[in-house]
Amino acid sequence: MLNRYPIWKYLIVLLVLAVGFIYALPNLYPEDPAIQISGERGVKAISQQNISQATSALEQAGIDVKATEINQGSALIRLEHANQQLSARSVVTDALGEGYVVALNLADSTPDWLRAIGAKPMKLGLDLRGGVHFLLEVDMDAAVTQRMNVDASAMRETLRDERIRYRDNSVRDRAITFSFLNEGELEKAEGELRSQYNQFEFTTRQQGREHQLVMTLTDKAVTDIQDYAVKQNLTTIRNRVNELGVSEPLVQRQGPSRIVVELPGVQDTAAAKRVVGATANLEFRLEAPADAQASEVETFGFRNDPSRKANLSNDVIITGDSVSSASQGFDQNGQPQVNINLDGPGGSKMNRATRSNIGKNMAVLYIEHKSRTRTVMENGKQVEKRTPYTEKGIISLATIQSALGNRFRITGLDSPTEASELSLLLRSGSLAAPIYFAQERTIGPSLGQENINRGVLSVEVGLVLVVLFMLLRYKAFGLIANTSLAINLSLLIAAMSLLGATLTLPGIAGIVLTLGMAVDANVLIYERIREELRNGMSPQQAIHAGYERAFTSILDANITTLLVALILFSIGTGPVKGFAVTLSLGILTSMFTGIMVSRAITNLTIGGKSLKKLWI
């Protein structure tokens, strides 16, 4: 019998529609404006007392609190109105004091039964939903200083290996200085180092009874180091953002020393700020012997007990740059630890250092670069001044029991959260230079509301015009096409929600284009039906021929458009990718609804009936 589907085809259509409608449902539940509170470095867990303190301060400030919740050591305070977020953040920051990170957020309000099956609302881009915008400043002077400290450590090791005795060593400005007791030692040192470090200009001078070798970085070397620092930081931050799982982030260089980071629709803005802005690194050093010269020793406190001190050698065995992979774990006592894998050169250095120092202590030094910001008056205006500083603390100091290789573990961490973040930072790579937040902007949904309103209006206008055209042109069959069009829009939203695709303003343009293209298949089919009716076919035969013979044209047209969308996605960036994603998904859903769904509706309503005339 013509125009009848087998039962399994109807079941497939029903299954797809049911899944599509269910996974599109979360988009009907708007997110709640909220502020999120967490401890610095994720170490300090948020307690109910902190929540009570924050909510009391908010109530006194006249800010309505909708609900509060604590999850994995951080707190979320849901608010009634989005325009209260900025005020709420300031109030809570003042109430809790130092040691806490308070950030804006949008809290998911999807019902539990939908979340249980993995149904989530569609993500909105920075231009629609809002998100976090960071402008990071790379400390170019620190980049040069860090490189020179590494070079100075390598130079000291070279001189010791060659048994060239030096009296003192210093790193200042752009110069490394070695002091010798006699000119012969200086000449041997200069000959040995000049061949290895051609980025320095070598000069000698007499300082009292000492002969000094001064190695100054060339201007080109400084430029190269600074440029490398920005590029390396850019790569590291991209890796960190990928670890956070943010969809379609923007991480790009701006000018000679700045990096722009945009994280649309982030779920945990406090953690994003901690991880993106963290400038932590590790150094592995031996504990200095009691008879070591004062110039070769540095004293550090322990991070978890600053009153406890240890003297460490200036020489660095390896840094976090040598870590190839890192993962969080727990030791036999259930305490958090980080499992470390080193690269080849790093493993060789660690093995050589520990093999010859069995029985001695080795420390893991945690280094974190920070800045303090204060407001001062300059020329009658308030100006923010940033003062950079560095915190160094020992994580662990353990006795070397045997020679270490490429794998070992770090213990002495305060919490699993700290272990998790440290392993993330080591996996993504260390920063080549400290970075500071030159600008931080949280873009709330209100800023993108006008874009949302205009985008929704464009979809509505396009939808209404297409619906009217199809009704006027194809009458009853136009009603079938319009039903398929509504189903197509639901399936497109469900697909984007299910795949975690991010909707941006260009993506809305892709939806509008999809609505116009979605009825193309029906137009081809209906025009073919009309042609077959004019050729004398019966209504049922004309319907069958229309769907069968138009299929090839529909497939060819959509495949060519899909290829263009895939090319746009592969070579485009940012907004172009957003448009390409929406267009690609729209092509797939429109082919399904235009061919399968519309024919299923046609078969169920008029298939197999005796028709004398078609209203088309």
UniProtKB/TrEMBL annotation:
<dbReference type="GO" id="GO:0005886">
    <property type="term" value="C:plasma membrane"/>
</dbReference>
<keyword id="KW-1003">Cell membrane</keyword>
<dbReference type="Pfam" id="PF13721">
    <property type="entry name" value="SecD-TM1"/>
</dbReference>
<feature type="transmembrane region" description="Helical">
    <location>
        <begin position="455"/>
        <end position="472"/>
    </location>
</feature>
<dbReference type="InterPro" id="IPR022813">
    <property type="entry name" value="SecD/SecF_arch_bac"/>
</dbReference>
<keyword id="KW-0472">Membrane</keyword>
<feature type="domain" description="Protein export membrane protein SecD/SecF C-terminal">
    <location>
        <begin position="438"/>
        <end position="602"/>
    </location>
</feature>
<feature type="domain" description="SecDF P1 head subdomain">
    <location>
        <begin position="305"/>
        <end position="433"/>
    </location>
</feature>
<dbReference type="GO" id="GO:0065002">
    <property type="term" value="P:intracellular protein transmembrane transport"/>
</dbReference>
<dbReference type="InterPro" id="IPR048634">
    <property type="entry name" value="SecD_SecF_C"/>
</dbReference>
<dbReference type="Pfam" id="PF07549">
    <property type="entry name" value="Sec_GG"/>
</dbReference>
<dbReference type="InterPro" id="IPR005791">
    <property type="entry name" value="SecD"/>
</dbReference>
<comment type="subunit">
    <text>Forms a complex with SecF. Part of the essential Sec protein translocation apparatus which comprises SecA, SecYEG and auxiliary proteins SecDF-YajC and YidC.</text>
</comment>
<feature type="domain" description="Protein translocase subunit SecDF P1">
    <location>
        <begin position="230"/>
        <end position="287"/>
    </location>
</feature>
<dbReference type="Pfam" id="PF21760">
    <property type="entry name" value="SecD_1st"/>
</dbReference>
<comment type="similarity">
    <text>Belongs to the SecD/SecF family. SecD subfamily.</text>
</comment>
<keyword id="KW-0653">Protein transport</keyword>
<feature type="domain" description="SecD export protein N-terminal TM">
    <location>
        <begin position="2"/>
        <end position="104"/>
    </location>
</feature>
<dbReference type="InterPro" id="IPR048631">
    <property type="entry name" value="SecD_1st"/>
</dbReference>
<keyword id="KW-0813">Transport</keyword>
<feature type="transmembrane region" description="Helical">
    <location>
        <begin position="550"/>
        <end position="572"/>
    </location>
</feature>
<feature type="compositionally biased region" description="Polar residues">
    <location>
        <begin position="325"/>
        <end position="340"/>
    </location>
</feature>
<keyword id="KW-0812">Transmembrane</keyword>
<dbReference type="GO" id="GO:0015450">
    <property type="term" value="F:protein-transporting ATPase activity"/>
</dbReference>
<feature type="transmembrane region" description="Helical">
    <location>
        <begin position="507"/>
        <end position="529"/>
    </location>
</feature>
<protein>
    <recommendedName>
        <fullName>Protein translocase subunit SecD</fullName>
    </recommendedName>
</protein>
<dbReference type="GO" id="GO:0006605">
    <property type="term" value="P:protein targeting"/>
</dbReference>
<dbReference type="Pfam" id="PF02355">
    <property type="entry name" value="SecD_SecF_C"/>
</dbReference>
<feature type="transmembrane region" description="Helical">
    <location>
        <begin position="7"/>
        <end position="25"/>
    </location>
</feature>
<feature type="region of interest" description="Disordered">
    <location>
        <begin position="325"/>
        <end position="354"/>
    </location>
</feature>
<dbReference type="Pfam" id="PF22599">
    <property type="entry name" value="SecDF_P1_head"/>
</dbReference>
<dbReference type="GO" id="GO:0043952">
    <property type="term" value="P:protein transport by the Sec complex"/>
</dbReference>
<comment type="function">
    <text>Part of the Sec protein translocase complex. Interacts with the SecYEG preprotein conducting channel. SecDF uses the proton motive force (PMF) to complete protein translocation after the ATP-dependent function of SecA.</text>
</comment>
<keyword id="KW-0811">Translocation</keyword>
<dbReference type="InterPro" id="IPR054384">
    <property type="entry name" value="SecDF_P1_head"/>
</dbReference>
<dbReference type="InterPro" id="IPR055344">
    <property type="entry name" value="SecD_SecF_C_bact"/>
</dbReference>
<keyword id="KW-1133">Transmembrane helix</keyword>
<dbReference type="InterPro" id="IPR027398">
    <property type="entry name" value="SecD-TM"/>
</dbReference>
<feature type="transmembrane region" description="Helical">
    <location>
        <begin position="578"/>
        <end position="602"/>
    </location>
</feature>
<dbReference type="InterPro" id="IPR022646">
    <property type="entry name" value="SecD/SecF_CS"/>
</dbReference>
<feature type="transmembrane region" description="Helical">
    <location>
        <begin position="479"/>
        <end position="501"/>
    </location>
</feature>
